[in-house]
Write a structure and sequence with these properties.
alpha/beta; four-stranded parallel sheet; 288 residues; 45% helix; 13 helices
């Protein structure tokens, strides 16, 4: 009888441990908004001990405002992060090297990912993180949704597209996005031409009025970021600036505002921005 009791106790102990350690990582922390957006859709809330910061509840910046509520905010504070006692920290490759070193010196497992610039890189990153946190099926579902939505969008565009429009993004800070940027990828995927890349500009840079005039885009996209500037005022400024009057986008009144958070994500929400851009450029009916 005692032997049977020992067996039962041992079985219960093993069963309890298997439940508690069902996943390799159960105290996950993310230190960038893009990491927040991915992990919140991959694992249950019980497995997350902290997220990047208040930025994930900023409606102008975040695609996960509701999902991110209630989690501790790390705000680039290493002491705060360490006090959360994570068993895995996920972050982008642009975080400060000294912060990363401090995390690694503390013996915490880290996954630092290369910031994706293309749709394929984004899909692969989601699958990599999904595998890491043992949520392969969820990752595959997210990626399949991205692929299906892109295919549907491109099919709709093919039915109305007559030529490849020359598009330019122009912010209130007088910056734009050329080659090797996510915006460049967005434009390519909707069958357009990034007029900025066309003239050899790379990355995200500030440009002069003269350069904008020389580029002469057919369409200008203005990121809407309410906390930063009144985007409508900026678009009105562009429309009424006499030095821009001969630009095709200005003459034809083809300046469109798109929320910043749609144009900026390096997460699965990238597909939202691609859809939004395609719908605006080709005057398609939104499905959202």
């Amino acid at each position: 009888m005692k032997g049977l009791l020992k067996v039962i106790i041992l079985f219960l102990l093993i069963f309890t441990l298997s439940i508690a350690n069902g996943k390799k990582y159960n105290r996950i922390a993310t230190i960038n908004l893009s990491g927040d957006e991915m992990i919140l859709n991959l694992v249950s809330s019980e497995r997350i001990v902290g997220l990047s910061g208040a930025i994930n509840e900023d409606e102008d910046m975040s695609n996960v405002c509701d999902l991110a509520k209630g989690f501790p905010k790390i705000e680039n504070n290493i002491e705060t992060l360490l006090n959360l006692d994570p068993d895995l920290v996920i972050g982008a490759d642009w975080i400060k090297k000294e912060n990363l070193q401090h995390i690694e010196d503390s013996g915490i497992n880290t996954f630092i990912y290369k910031t994706p610039k293309t749709f394929e890189e984004q899909k692969n990153l989601i699958l990599d993180i999904a595998n890491l946190v043992e949520e392969k099926e969820k990752g595959e579902i997210i990626v399949k949704d991205m692929e299906t939505r892109l295919k549907n969008l491109q099919e709709k565009i093919s039915k109305v597209k007559t030529k490849s429009p020359r598009i330019m993004i122009y912010t209130s800070l007088e910056t734009t996005s050329g080659k090797n940027t996510t915006f460049d990828e967005f434009v390519r995927l909707i069958g357009g031409i990034n007029a900025v890349s066309e003239v050899g500009i790379k990355g995200e840079v500030k440009i002069s009025k003269e350069t904008v005039i020389d580029i002469d885009p057919e369409i200008i996209i203005v990121p809407i970021w309410k906390e930063h500037i009144n985007s409508e005022e900026f678009m009105n400024f562009l429309m009424n600036d006499d030095s821009f009057k001969d630009i095709k986008a200005i003459k034809n009144r083809k300046i469109y505002g798109i929320p910043f958070k749609k144009l900026s994500p390096t997460s699965q929400y990238m597909i939202d921005g691609i859809e939004n851009l395609g719908e605006v450029i080709y005057n398609l009916e939104s499905e959202s």
